[in-house]
Description:
Number of helices: 13
Largest sheet: 2 strands, antiparallel
Mean pLDDT: 94
Strand content: under 5%
Strand order of the largest sheet: 1-2
Number of strands: 2
Number of domains: 1
Distance between the termini: 27 Å
Radius of gyration: 17 Å
Structural class: mainly alpha
Amino acid sequence: MTTLAPIQAPADLIEHLETTPRSQAIDDHGFDLNLLYWNNRIGHLPGGPVRGVDGSIERGRITRGSLFAMADGACTDESAEAAYALLWHVLAWGTGTSHRNTTKRVASIERNVAGIGEGLRRAAILSRTDPQAAFRTLQPHKPLVGSLGPNFFTKYLYFAGAGNIEHPCLIVDKRVLATLSRSTEEPLTPKHGSGYGYRTYSAANNMMSEWARQLSTPDRQIGFDEVERWAFKVGK
């Protein structure tokens, strides 16, 4: 596993954690989305429909908290229906209004529904104990789902942790990597394109979890994901 020398947490991270409750930064963090867009495209596939927190299937809000509630099913449902449900909701939450690569991702899944479903369930289970195996399940050589690289599939691995504040798989996208790279002499930003391998993922997770541990107190344990949330906000 890749490790970096201990680095002191940045001052602006400390300020963010002191002024932002976890419930605000994490559980309530969500978006009002066009759910009908998704349901028109995945109605023939397992895991639908995509629903907002109020049950709407046309337009509604999806939050981190609502995605956490879907995680256990993604691990335990042997049919992989629940794993697909988590994936669709995570993709809706993560793509927002851009829908970039959605058509390609859906088409890739259509070509291998059973195999990808099995991989999604396995990755969800592994995400809780073995980040390397989870990562490599979704990217053994190239991404398991076409056009779904680590910038996005790490979101799925993160939400599979059901909100555990010490879940070992965090969201690591280009904005998070940009923030972390400014705090280390070893750049974490990909050299080519937006893809990256497990060594980069491991280094990013280790740095964020280390900062969370540094800043935790007997009165307030900092979730690893609270550091990720900050890193995304300030990343460019």
